[in-house]
Amino acid sequence: MKKRPLIDIRSFLAIVVLGLVIVLATGCSSSNASSEGKPEQIRLDYAYYSPTSLVLKKFGWAEEEFADDDIEVTWALSQGSNKALEFLNSDSVDFGSTAGAAALMSKANGAPIKNVYIYSKPEWTAMVTNPDSGITSLQDLRGKEVAATIGTDPYIFLLRSLAAEGVPVDEVEIVNLQHGDGASALASGSVDAWAGLDPHMARLELESGAELFYRNADFNTYGFLNVREEFAENYPDYVNRVIKVYEKARNWIIENPEEAAELLAEEAGIDVEVAKKQLERNDFSEPIPGDVHYEAIVAAGKVLQEGEVIEADVDVEALTTELIESTYAEEVIE
């Protein structure tokens, strides 16, 4: 019997073509890649909880920075840390704005991200209720419905606050709603309380007399600007240049607080008095990631472990060290 060849010529050609496709796909694994050692585009997010990003987008300083390189700058709106992290994980943006603890949660789940810049130190979350609710302490939340956006700083703030006050989380019904929807649910009385986020929180304070019945600024983690690790490895100089334009925006806010409030109001579609209240709760003085940020994230991470949000066998200190990368900002910021 004549033996059949293991691979006929058509199969061989098909394998060759498939191999070429794989090689080409590998060489162009990032949609940002170019043959000139620079990205074809830089994809940034902006968020109403990150005034720095709004200033940067408004004035087009990133577009100006990269115009001579013929690099396109694109923007995506992050409605919360969870959305920014979804964008980063799906390779939809290169830089995403999140709370520090939310970035740690994502890192614990394998997200390939690095924190390279602090866009603000905010007191952007607190526990909020309606003035006639009868809720005055966290103890009053037992058996109540509380809105929060899972995976974001307000959610983590809720967990840390309950733990600090000795209220078991399983005695509270957490309703997972995006931040704006949580604010609306509280205003309509659909939930008893809400783990708030500015500017929605400031708006409810001024418009409906909502009460911040539990506050702890130390339980708010910092505003992290995260970059995808692949982008940072391929284009470290461009990470520095993004930080440079963020610095321009941060300094502009410090020097122009009234104008910054007006810009925030315009971009977020809120009253200027709401914007002023939000900005009053932001400290823009420490942009370089450092020990204070490391300690805050480790503390949040340990509470998340106790609440079984992060696996018990995760080394929180080591994970935080992997997440926080200060060298880029140190090179740029004097």
Description:
By secondary structure, the chain is α/β, with parallel strands linked by helices. The chain folds into two domains: 41-122 and 221-332, Periplasmic binding protein-like II (D-Maltodextrin-Binding Protein, domain 2); 127-219, 3-Layer(aba) Sandwich (D-Maltodextrin-Binding Protein, domain 2), CATH 3.40.190.10. It is built from 15 helices and eleven strands. It has a five-stranded mixed beta sheet. A four-stranded antiparallel beta sheet has the order 3-10-4-11, sandwiched between helices. Helix 2 (51-59) packs across helix 10, helix 5 (100-108) crosses helix 13 (291-306) and helix 11 (257-268) crosses helix 12. The longest helix has 20 residues, at 236-255. The chain is globular, with a radius of gyration of 23 Å. The termini are far apart.
What is the secondary structure topology, with strand pairs?
Elements: H1 9-27, E1 41-46, H2 51-59, H3 61-67, E2 72-77, H4 81-89, E3 95-99, H5 100-108, E4 113-122, E5 127-129, E6 145-148, H6 153-164, E7 173-176, H7 179-188, E8 193-195, H8 200-208, E9 211-214, E10 223-228, H9 229-234, H10 236-255, H11 257-268, H12 272-280, E11 282-283, H13 291-306, H14 316-323, H15 327-332
Parallel strand pairs: 1-2, 6-7, 6-8
Antiparallel strand pairs: 3-10, 4-10, 4-11, 5-8, 5-9
Briefly characterize the structure:
This protein has helices at residues 9-27, 51-59, 61-67, 81-89, 100-108, 153-164, 179-188, 200-208, 229-234, 236-255, 257-268, 272-280, 291-306, 316-323, 327-332, and strands spanning 41-46, 72-77, 95-99, 113-122, 127-129, 145-148, 173-176, 193-195, 211-214, 223-228, 282-283. By secondary structure, the protein is of the alpha/beta class.
